[in-house]
Automatic annotation (TrEMBL):
Its main location: Golgi. Keywords: Golgi apparatus, Membrane. InterPro entries: Cog5, COG5_helical, COG5_N. GO terms for cellular component: Golgi membrane; Golgi transport complex. It is a peripheral membrane protein. This is Conserved oligomeric Golgi complex subunit 5. Residues 169-372 form the Conserved oligomeric Golgi complex subunit 5 helical domain.
Length: 792
């Protein structure tokens, strides 16, 4: 039946949960088949009646059983209603019996509570009055406030106010009347406690500071009081900084009337000197004020970190600061540095007068700052207590005046550079500065160093600027150096180009020597700063005459090479011992010419007017070093080629000895004191007697120690037969070619060339079947083996 209704398109609508009869009727009427629908519905009703009748008949027994159960439940429910009614009656009777006692108990409870509150209030009032009386007695017993036990009075005051606030004693006439007096006493205690505390900070008295802090700790106002003190001192410091750089205040203090400062912060005409003096005085006062502030706060912090409450043993510093809070000195210093840096930056850009004053007087400004930092460090250097300032904190203060430092260094470089540019103008290459010009540059450098020498850090910074100026000087001087044939000629008198180079060399020598002496008394690091510039100046000074010295040396070597054009092997040759060899005469003339035309203009004058014209060597100058090198080279070059002379007869030895004497005299009188030449001079002095020794005496002679082995070996070739060729002969080299080869080789390489010549000789002797060698052969092998042994 249910399936039939569900499948029917009309009856299925009645099974929907949202069935609407009105909507169904409206749809049936609008469809135009209402009669058929009615018939259909009536048929359905008949079917439903039949189905219901069938269901009732099939379940008749069950329905009768359910009906009897309902009747039993109705009977039980009636019995329950009766019991509930009886219970409600009992409850009404109990409620009426308990309500009166409850009202009485509640009233008594309120009465008891009021009695307790009143008792407690009376007790608190009595205690309040007792404490007030103790405070009054304490105040009356010591009319002199300086002898008053402030900490005890503060403790009474704190307990009275705490009692008043905790038990809400306001509104009690006697309490209110007494409270007014207590409040007045509290103000007096604060005032007196602050007086003691500030006096202790001013006098740096730990006892007074501790007593003052104890007053405010007992009053429960320690943190606020300390914060207030820090803020107060911070404000004093900031005010002092602002006042010291206030140009209007400086103008008023300078004593030249109102309106003395223009908008740009520049004093009126005529007031600059007074304004500068007033500005420096204010800065000095500001530094003193900052010192006092920082030391006072450090002293406050020191006492806080040491003092404990005598009853609770609480450290006072823990009451003032939390774990992450900065120390008091850090707070005050950061505020002061921030204000100082801001004010310095502002005045640097806003006041041309302050900028000029502090830039030109930066060493004085820096000295003030460093003196402040040193005083603070000294006055807060107590064992077991952290200092007021760390190195980082000090650097912060120095950094605050960095704009003036930069301007000061730029001004320093500008002064030096302008002076160098005026002495060596780029527009005029041929102009040569005078000694006065060079002295002005050196004096300016000396003034710059002396102005900052009391401060090591600033001295190094200024030296860096001086280094730049010296590099500019060397660059301009190098631009003025003349080159070309005129600067290198050595046969005629000194040319204008050479005279200009001489002047440049001497000027640069003067700068190098004077500046080196200026920094000699400074720390080593100062010399390191100027080392690049001084080295460059030294090099440029040498470059200005190096080509001339090389040309002179080439000329002298060319004269010495002519020794090979002379005959030293002919017996009975010219025995006129009063004259030197032609090559030696030419060498002497060249040396004298060089001395008179060139060296006399370059070398410092002799310290003794009665002595010869030999240059004084008490101080090693650039030119002295070059002359020393030329003199050493001449002696070494002569000995080398004298040892190559072959053959060498007895009369030739005499002639060569005379030439060596003439050479020693010429070099000593015109170039350099030969006794100060060291090895080359000892070699010259040793070679003269060596040439007269017998071959058998040579090996044991101590003279060989002063001669290079190659000189001795080459000289032995002059004692050997023609069959034993020297390396120069063996390789068919000219004396100049062989000398150039020797310049590029060491003693061991020269020995290898000599050994090859000895091996050829031994081969020739062996080819002839001879068993004996010339006397010099084994000696040369022995001397050569010592060279190999030393090299290994």
């Amino acid at each position: 039946m249910a399936n039939l209704l569900a499948s029917d398109p009309i009856f299925s609508a009645f099974l929907l949960p949202d069935f609407d009869s009105a909507r169904f009727s409206s749809a049936a009427l609008s469809s135009g088949s209402a009669a058929s629908r009615i018939e259909k519905l009536q048929e359905g009703l008949r079917l439903l009646d039949n189905q219901l009748r069938h269901e009732v008949l099939s379940r008749h027994e069950d329905l009768l059983n359910q009906l009897s159960s309902i009747r039993a439940a109705d009977s039980a429910l009636s019995s329950l209603r009766s019991s509930v009614s009886s219970l409600q009656s009992s409850l009404q009777r109990v409620r009426s019996e308990l309500s009166d006692p409850h009202r009485v108990i509640a009233a008594k409870t309120v009465q008891l509570s009021n009695l307790h509150s009143t008792t407690e209030l009376l007790q608190s009032t009595i205690r309040f009055l007792r404490l007030s009386k103790k405070l009054r007695d304490l105040m009356d017993s010591t009319p002199d406030h300086e002898k008053l036990d402030l900490s005890k009075a503060a403790q009474f005051h704190f307990e009275i106010l705490s009692l008043h606030n905790e038990y809400h004693l306001s509104g009690i006439d006697v309490v209110d009347a007494e409270l007014k007096w207590v409040t007045e006493i509290g103000q007096k205690l604060r005032s007196e406690g602050m007086r003691v505390l500030e006096k202790g900070l001013e006098d740096l008295n730990q006892a007074d500071v501790g007593a003052g802090l104890q007053v405010f700790y007992n009053m429960g106002e320690l943190r606020g009081t300390v914060d207030g003190l820090v803020s107060k001192y911070k404000g004093l410091g900031v005010k002092s900084i602002n006042t010291s750089l206030d140009m209007k205040a400086v103008s008023a203090g300078g004593g030249y009337g109102p309106g003395g400062v223009q908008r740009s912060g520049t004093p009126q005409l005529g007031g600059s000197a007074k304004a500068k003096e007033a500005l420096w005085q204010r800065m000095s006062s500001c530094m003193d004020q900052l010192h006092s502030i920082v030391v006072a706060i450090w002293h406050l912090q020191r006492v806080l970190s040491k003092k404990r409450d005598p009853f609770t043993h609480v450290l006072l510093l823990e009451e003032v600061m939390q774990d992450d809070d900065p120390m008091l000195t850090v707070r005050i210093w950061e505020a002061l540095v921030k204000s100082f840096a801001s004010q310095m930056k502002s005045t640097f850009t806003a006041s041309s007068f302050v900028k000029e004053t502090f830039t030109t007087g930066y060493p004085k400004l820096l000295s003030m700052i460093e003196n402040l930092l040193e005083r603070i460090s000294r006055d807060t250097d107590v064992k077991g207590v952290p200092p007021a300032l760390t190195s980082e904190a000090k650097d912060q203060m120095i950094s605050a005046i960095e704009p003036f430092q930069t301007a000061f260094l730029a001004l320093c470089l500008s002064r030096l550079s302008d002076l160098v540019n005026s002495v060596f103008p780029m527009s005029s290459r041929g102009s040569i500065p005078s000694k006065e010009h060079i002295s002005r540059i050196i004096s300016r450098i000396q003034e710059e160093i002396e102005s900052v020498q009391l401060d090591a850090r600033l001295t190094l910074l200024v030296l860096h600027e001086i280094n730049k100026a010296l590099l500019l000087l060397s660059e301009r001087a190098e631009y003025q150096i003349s080159a070309g044939p005129e600067a290198r000629q050595v046969t005629g008198p000194a040319t204008p180009a050479q005279l200009k180079n001489f002047a440049l060399c001497q000027h640069l020598q003067e700068v190098h020597a004077r500046v080196s002496s200026l920094v000699a008394g400074l720390p080593t690091i100062a010399s390191d700063v100027l080392s690049p510039a001084l080295g460059t100046i030294y090099g440029v000074a040498g470059d200005s005459v190096t080509s001339l010295f090389q040309a002179m040396l080439d000329r002298l070597e060319a004269s010495i090479l002519k020794i090979h054009d002379q005959s030293f092997g002919t017996s009975g040759m010219d025995n006129n011992n009063n004259h030197a060899s032609p090559y030696m005469e030419e060498l002497q003339k060249s040396i004298v010419h060089f001395r008179s035309e060139f060296l006399s203009r370059l070398l410092p004058p002799s310290s003794s007017s009665s002595s010869s014209s030999t240059p004084s060597c008490s101080t090693e100058t650039i030119c002295t070093r070059l002359v020393r090198g030329v003199a050493s080279r001449v002696l070494t070059f002569f000995i080398r080629h004298a040892s190559l002379v072959r053959p060498l007869s007895e009369s030739g030895k005499l002639r060569m000895a005379r030439d060596m004497a003439e050479l020693e005299l010429a070099v000593g009188q015109n170039l350099f004191p030969v006794e100060q030449l060291g090895g080359p001079y000892r070699s010259l002095r040793a070679f003269r007697p060596v040439i007269f020794l017998e071959t058998s005496q040579l090996e044991a002679s101590p003279l060989l120690q002063d001669l290079p082995p190659s000189v001795v070996l080459h000289h032995l070739f002059s004692r050997a037969p023609d069959e034993l060729q020297s390396p120069m002969q063996r390789n068919r080299l000219s004396p100049l070619q062989y000398s150039l080869w020797m310049d590029s080789q060491g003693e061991d390489q020269i020995w290898r060339g000599i050994k090859a010549a000895l091996d050829d000789y031994a081969a020739k002797v062996g080819a002839r079947g001879d068993k004996e060698f010339c006397p010099v052969y084994p000696l040369m092998l022995k001397l050569g083996s010592s060279i190999s042994g030393n090299q290994s």
